[in-house]
């Protein structure tokens, strides 16, 4: 399993528009083969922060979906990004 997690920084005044532009990406990801979870959401404390969380069955599934990455428009809106991939060897359910 692969987890992709971190955050993006955008202009606080543009965050709502940025997130609206991500709706189709989230819809596509959730339909993609191997996607277990995918969310892009507004941070509750920092007005310019966008949180990213993805869970995939495999690295191959991530790469098949990722393709060329974010659109030029989305890339231009980013002030900074801190997102990483984590290879998960084991899972413990908490509920």
Provide the fold topology.
Elements: E1 2-10, H1 15-31, E2 35-42, E3 49-56, H2 59-66, H3 72-77, E4 78-87
Give a brief description.
The protein has 95 residues and is of the alpha+beta class.
The percentage helix is: 25-40%
Largest sheet: 4 strands, antiparallel
Secondary-structure-based class equals alpha+beta
Beta-strand residue percentage: 35-45%
SSE order, as H and E? Answer: EHEEHHE
How many individual helices?
Answer: 3
Give the termini distance in whole angstroms.
19 Å
Mean pLDDT: 93
Tell how many strands the DSSP assignment holds: 4
Kindly describe this structure.
The chain is built from three helices and four strands. By secondary structure, the chain is an alpha+beta fold. It starts with a strand and ends in an 8-residue tail after the last strand. It has helices spanning 15-31, 59-66, 72-77, and strands at residues 2-10, 35-42, 49-56, 78-87.
């Amino acid at each position: 399993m692969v987890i992709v997690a971190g955050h993006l920084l955008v202009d606080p005044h543009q965050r709502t528009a940025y997130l609206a532009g991500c709706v189709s990406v989230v819809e596509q990801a959730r339909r993609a083969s191997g996607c277990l979870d995918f969310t892009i959401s507004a941070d509750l404390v920092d007005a310019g922060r966008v949180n990213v969380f993805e869970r995939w069955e495999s690295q191959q599934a991530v790469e098949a979906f990722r393709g060329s990455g974010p659109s030029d428009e989305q890339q231009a809106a980013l002030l900074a990004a801190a997102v990483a991939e984590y290879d998960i060897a084991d899972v413990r359910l908490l509920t």
